Amino acid sequence: MDASLGPALAALLLAGVYAAGAGAGRETREAAPGHGKRAIASAAAGVSIAYVFVDLLPELAEQNRALRAAAGEPLLFAEQRIYVLALLSFTVMYGIEHIVLGRRDARSEAVASGRRDAVYWIHLAGFAAYSALIGYLLVEREDRGPDALAVYAFAMAVHFLVVNHSLAEEHGAMYRTHGRFVLAASVAAGWLLGTVAQLAPGAFARLFAVLAGGVVITSLRSELPDGRRGRFWPFCLAAAAFAVLLMVA
Fold first, then answer.
1. 240 CB-near residues (< 8 Å, 6+ apart)
2. Do residues 88 and 216 lie in contact, with contact meaning Cβ atoms separated by under 8 Å?
3. In sequence order, what are the residues at sequence separation of 6 or more whose Cβ sits closer than 8 angstroms to the Cβ of residue 222?
4. List of residues 6+ apart from 77 with CB closer than 8 A
5. Rounded to an integer, what distance in angstroms lies between the CA atom of residue 181 and that of residue 201?
6. What are the DSSP calls for 204-218, one per residue?
7. pLDDT (tens digit, 9 = 90+) per residue, 22-33?
8. What tens digit of pLDDT does each residue of 65-99 get?
């Protein structure tokens, strides 16, 4: 496969996951969705979490070495810096989710009265930047070999199912009408940027840490806030199965 074709196909796949469907709408948020859909969302979250703990977090140690080498001199808290970046990413994404959930009632009144939902646009912008980062990293995954790219593309495609379900459930028709297409375009834009702008190892290491923190919070957000609607066994079994697959591969 041509070196540029693999990331392009992966970007098309990831963008297609966003564009193809958006799950449950706002009107179904208070009612529990069907067991099948909830089980699929829980299994997808399990795959995402397994990918983080078995593949991404171990690679953070490698990226930490790249960051230290790029600095060319001893760094203050050198061993912890990249993990602090992952924590910062986790915290920022959590903060966005906290704003969304905390203003849910006020947003519902604004939409009902025809006013713009500013929190929706903040939420969408955060995930657009996050999705662009995932698209950007496709080119680097290809540099590590087709297997690394295939695993990354699969894990992120499943992860986008979680994101799609969560955003559609929270924002309903607004997200289904145009939001999912904004995120699909963000993936493509990130991939295009990755083909023309290669980052230095230190900058890439920082972006990788941001990705790791973001995947954790966006996957768990679909399970924890509405824990009564989560499905433990699909989550657990999917996480275990994908973890074994990653270790064997």
1. 46, 50
2. no
3. 41, 42, 45, 162, 165, 166, 230
4. 84
5. 31
6. HHHHHHHHHHHHHHH
7. 654 444 444 445
8. 877 776 665 666 666 778 888 899 999 988 888 88
